[in-house]
Amino acid sequence: MTPREDQQELETQFAQWRQYVQRRRELTSADAEELEDHLRGCVDELVAAGLSADEAFLVAVKRMGSLDELSREFAREHSERLWQQLVLTGGTGDPVADTRSRRDLRVMLLCAAGAAVSVKVPALFGLDMADDAPFYGVNFSLFALPWLAGFLAWRRQAGRALIGVLVALFALGAVAANAYPLADDSQSVILTAIHLPIALWLVAGLAYVATEWRSSRRRMDFIRFTGEWVVYFVLIGLGGGVLTGFTAGTFLAIGIDPKTFIWQWLLPCGAAAAVVVAGWLVEVKQGVVENIAPVLTRLFTPLFTAVLLAFLVAIVWTSAGIDVERQALILFDLLLVVVLGLLLYSLSARDPLAPPGLFDRVQLALVVSALAVDVLVLFEIAGRISEYGATANKAAALGENVVLLANLAWSAWLLLQFVRRRTPFVALERWQTGYLPVYAAWAWVVVLVFPPLFSYA
User: Fewer CB near the last or first residue (10 Å), C or N of the chain?
Assistant: First the structure.
């Protein structure tokens, strides 16, 4: 390369590094410029010492250390700014960052209002929430998640191709939820109501990762986003519950019954809007309170491990079989999903370079226990299917447990190898991020294939 080409390549690398730095919400534009000046100074010194531009850039970045560590140092030095970020939009002292924050707020409010209004659109066609509960149960994710995906796509400046894919997938979900002739008491209605939100959430994940959908790191970022979103959504829900209680109490005190307003407007519209608001909070506050979910993960992982081990001991002690009727199947599947969620989020929040410790061994015990429960449930489901025949519920449960079994089994093996220091942590991380499309594929199979396969029963 000529010196001019070397310089152009180096500037490209600086631009990529700058883009990564600017995703850290703790760091303002001034902070990013300060870091970049330091990096450029290191590169210049290394080039003067005889290294090539590429080598100098890599060595300089390595010397600067982890960007997350630098972010935490800035957070400690500018704690007053972070408190402002928790309660205000803007207020960082950086005009560029403040303008971006205000723009984010306006777009979020527009999307949240769109989600709230979408909930009431079916009422224009004569549908009532009380009389048409199955319709609203199946379609609720279609009211809220497209708006969340739209907000994320706007934040990522998604191209036309990606927007077209998102629109097509949400349209496919709408057709699947409403085109099949399903009776209100059909098993397929329940299965669609459970699996369509999963499929559409992963569509929103496509908006989150944007053009980097092949990147394991960006997929792990989406897992982290999901965990934080759950925390925020639950907190908003708790606050909404208090608001609802005050609304009911105060209006009843003056002789007005607000029941219709609460059930027909406040709760459904508020829940749809909260889906978008929670996503916005994760986006604009990331790095400020991103330790909430990891703390909860470390708290509940040992507790769930103890519960699963106690359950397995009770099965051996009593020689009792597992009830695999519909309610029990949902309970066991939820339990396994929670275990998987604890594993995923703890992986996303862990320092990949840290050596294995006690918590990794507890996680291994949790995964192995969940794996044993999954095998027992699978045996029971297979036995019921062979004896009484397949139903949509049992077939879906069988498939879900097989999908979870494959993930848990390989995760247990990789965790064991990591604990024994034979496999790097990144192998476990890549396995989990690479497995996300499997969940999406299975959710779409249940939504699109199961209703006609089981004669819409």
Answer: N
